[in-house]
Amino acid sequence: RYNLVQGQKTNANEVYQFLTLPYSAKATSLGGINISSLGSDLGLAMYNPSLLDPSMDKTLHLSVKSYYANIYQYDLSGAHYLYNRNSVLSWGIHYMGYGNIKMTDVTGNDLGNFIANDYVAQVSMASLFNKNIMLGTTFKYIHSNYGIYTSTGLAMDFSMTYTSSNNLVRASLLANNVGTQIKSYTEKERLPLNIIMGFSKKLENAPIQFSLTAQRLSIWNNAYYDANFYNEQGYSTPSSLQDVFNHIIVGSEFNIGEQLNLNVGYNFLRRFDLNVQNQQNWFNGFSSGIGVKLPRITIQYGNAFFQRNLYHQFSIFYSLNIPN
């Protein structure tokens, strides 16, 4: 019993796992997490507050992602530049709706339906520390509702982003979901704390940038590993090298003019978790997407492979500012 519990001690055992999902189509297309992409993107800033910048003033963002069984994810956010404080304030809602679920007793008698959902409402602030460093903080109110079981939590994100003077290099550090449950379902559980580092480099003479993201840095072996199941099924224990790669996400962005960009990503941990022995594992871990920028509207599309299934996310950004 002791070995089984120790083997399963990962972020997968923590509460409010919906907080780990990408908040925008671009994040989905770049492997699920990207905290350092060069440019201005309110969807990425919803996850990393130090990516907020004055160019996002009066911008609104809406993302929609559908799953199986009428499950939907919605993300809504907006930003406002505070001129007198040289800071950017933003708000956001990250919502997961699981639809109506049938409720039965232990003998299978129908007791009606119940609605299940999770959401987090958040407020973020970012300020310029010096000409190259932005500091950001997010405060989160989290609520989860599964029929008679409800839970509430509070969390904060803390981040710092460095951008080089020539805008060719960006590096970020993010402490994500630092908080606690204030009302639990039955017993208190930990939040999915994630310490993340990100680095992006844009080529000076080519419209390409590359990103390297290292996630879950507070946990060495962050794969979901059940020792008993692995032994029964003949799986090999993850090697030390595999443990290293399971922290890494890579992404690339290709700009075609000023209006169009293509994104690709690869998440090593996702591939490791989804791969099944002696089966076709297709493109697990891979993701891609496209973005189109118009004068006041930006449209993004991102997808990611899970076994033989391809999941899609759409984002739209609208600027309330009238172009000069």
What's the count of strands? 14
Order of neighbouring strands in the sheet with most strands: 1-2-3-4-5-6-7-8-9-10-11-12-13-14
The helix content, as a percent range, equals 10-25%
- Form type: globular
Our Rg estimate from Cα atoms comes to 20 Å
Largest sheet: 14 strands, antiparallel, barrel
Report the span from N to C terminus.
67 Å
Overall pLDDT score: 90
Structural class: mainly beta
Uncertain runs are 1-9
Q: Count of helices?
A: 6
The helix/strand order is: HHHEEEEEEEEEHHEEHEEE
The share of residues in extended strands comes to over 45%
Can you offer a commentary on this structure?
The structure is a single chain. The chain has 324 residues and is mainly beta. 11% of the residues lie in helices and 50% in strands. It is built from 6 helices and 14 strands. It has a 14-stranded antiparallel beta barrel with strand order 1-2-3-4-5-6-7-8-9-10-11-12-13-14. The termini are far apart. The model is unreliable at 1-9 (pLDDT under 50).
Tell me the layout of helices and strands:
Layout: H1 2-7, H2 25-29, H3 42-45, E1 59-66, E2 72-82, E3 87-104, E4 110-128, E5 133-146, E6 149-163, E7 169-183, E8 194-202, E9 208-214, H4 227-233, H5 240-245, E10 248-256, E11 260-267, H6 268-274, E12 286-293, E13 297-306, E14 309-319
Antiparallel strand pairs: 1-2, 1-14, 2-3, 3-4, 4-5, 5-6, 6-7, 7-8, 8-9, 9-10, 10-11, 11-12, 12-13, 13-14
